[in-house]
Amino acid sequence: MSDQATDTHFDLIVIGGGPGGYAAALYGASAGLQVALVEMDKVGGTCLHRGCIPAKELLETAHVFRTVSHAGDFGVGTSAPTVNFSTTIARKQQVVDTLFTGLSGLLKHRKVELFNGIGTLQADRSVRVQGVDGEVAVLNGDAVVLASGSVPRTIPGFEVDGTVVLTSDEVFALQELPKRVAVIGGGAIGCEFASMMSDLGSEVTILEALPQILPGVDKDVVNVVRRSFKGRGIDVKVGTKVQGHTPNGNGTSIAIEGQDPLEVDAVVVSVGRRPLSESLGLDGTGVVVDGRGFVEVDEFCRTAVDGVWAIGDLIATPGLAHVGYAEAILVVKQLLGDEAIPVDYANVAWCIYCQPEVAFAGYSEQGAIEAGYEVVTSKHRWGGNSRALIIGDTEGVVKVIAEKRADGTAGRLLGVHMAGPWVTEQLGAGYLAVNWEASVDEIAHYIQPHPSLTETFGEAVLSLTGRSLNS
C-alpha cells in the first residue's frame, strides 16, 4: 500500500510512548497542543511493562516476605511464610494493567491521537508510521520528539534464550524463581534483582567486572549494601570477568577468569541498557547518532535538525524515568515559548530499591573532592532513630557532604547519600537542598517531625553546624 498522509497537521509528534514520550504528549496536550503519539507496543514503555514498575512490585513482595518472617519479633504469631511466585507475577501484572489502563485513558482524555506502529523520521518534520495492522500513514508536524527508549544490553557468550540466560524482560515472565542464580552486573538493576531473589529463597551470586558494586554511589553507602548482602548470603564477586557458559542439562556452568566455574540454574544478564535508535530511520536525516547509538543533543535536548528533539534513554543522560519526564517538560516549554531551564543532570535524584534501599542526590564525597571541593561530612546511623527502632529496621546510614568554608565551617550542601529504611521516600528534602544550593545553617533551621525516619537527615545536617542533639 502506498503511504497515505493524514488529514491532520499536528503541533507535536512524539515517537515512543515510554515515560519521556507520554510525558511530552500529556504536558503538550495540557497546554492545548495538538499531539500525535506513535508507539509500536503499549504506552508506558519499558518502565511500566518490563522495568521500574514490575521490578518494584516484586521487591515489595520481598519486603512483605521479610516482614512476615519477622512478625514474631513484634509478638505476632505466624507460621513460616512461603512464596507462590506465580501469584506474585499475577499481582505484578494486575498493577501494570491498572496503570496502563489509567495512562491510556488519560491520553484519550487529553485528546492525544495514538498511532500504534513503528515511527520513522522523514524530511520536514514528518513521520512515517508502519502500523501493526499493515497500514501506513505519514504524519506532518511542527515539531518532533524522538523518545524510542532502550533495550537491555547483552554480552558475548551469553545469548539470551529466555530459559537459562535471562534479561530483565524474561525475569518478569517467570512463574517460579531459579534455586541458584548468577546476576551478571552489580549496578542498580542487578542489585535489585539479587536482593529480591535472595529474599524469596534463591541462592544468588553477583558477578561484577568493576572493583565495586553500585559504581558511582558513595563508598559508605556501598559498604552498607555489601554488608547486608553478605549477611543474607548473597555472594558478591567484584573484579570478575566472565568468559561464557556451558549448559549442562539442569542449568549451566559459568566460566570465570582465574576462578572455578560457577554452577547455576539461571543467569540474569544485567549490564545496562542501550538506546533503541536503529528503528527511527535516522540515516540521512541530519540527526546525529554517536558510536554507542545515542542521539546527540545540546543542553536543551535539540538535535542537529531544526524542530527535532530527543529525550529519555535515547540520549546520553541518566537513564531514569523521572529524568525523561523533566526532559519532556523542557522540550514542550520551548515549543510554547516559556522559560526553559536545562536539566541539571549532576544533581538528579537516584533511587535503588534493593534491601537496604539506596537514595542519593549530588556529589559523593569522593566525587566532590575530585571536582576540587574541600568538604566536611556527617554520617548518622539508624540505630538512634526511634522510628527505625519501632519498625525494626536500623540497617544503614545517612551521609551529608558539604562544602568547607575558609573558616573551616560547613557551608553549601553538595550531596546527600542514604541507605536504609524507606530512604527512596525520604530523599526529597535532601534533593531540594542540594539543588537550591542551600547551606547547612539554612537546612538545620527546619524542624523534622518526631518520631520519624527523616529525623536522621535533620540530625546529620544539624551536627555540621557544630552542635547537635543526639550525637
Describe, in short, the structure shown:
This protein has helices spanning 19-30, 45-50, 52-69, 85-109, 168-171, 188-199, 219-231, 321-336, 365-370, 386-391, 427-435, 440-444, 455-463, and strands spanning 4-10, 12-15, 35-39, 113-121, 126-131, 136-141, 144-146, 150-152, 165-166, 180-184, 203-207, 235-237, 242-247, 252-256, 262-264, 266-269, 273-275, 308-310, 350-352, 357-362, 375-381, 397-404, 410-420.
Structural features, described:
The chain has 471 residues and is an alpha/beta fold. The chain folds into three domains: 4-151 and 275-345, FAD/NAD(P)-binding domain, CATH 3.50.50; 165-271, FAD/NAD(P)-binding domain; 356-463, FAD/NAD-linked reductase, C-terminal dimerisation domain (Enolase-like, domain 1). The protein has 13 helices and 23 strands. The protein has helices at 19-30, 45-50, 52-69, 85-109, 168-171, 188-199, 219-231, 321-336, 365-370, 386-391, 427-435, 440-444, 455-463; strands at residues 4-10, 12-15, 35-39, 113-121, 126-131, 136-141, 144-146, 150-152, 165-166, 180-184, 203-207, 235-237, 242-247, 252-256, 262-264, 266-269, 273-275, 308-310, 350-352, 357-362, 375-381, 397-404, 410-420. The strands form five sheets. An eight-stranded mixed β-sheet has the order 1-6-5-4-3-2-7-18. The chain has a five-stranded parallel β-sheet with strand order 9-16-10-11-12. A five-stranded antiparallel β-sheet has the order 19-20-23-22-21, with helices on both faces. The termini are far apart. The relative contact order is 0.11. The model has no long low-confidence stretch (mean pLDDT 95).
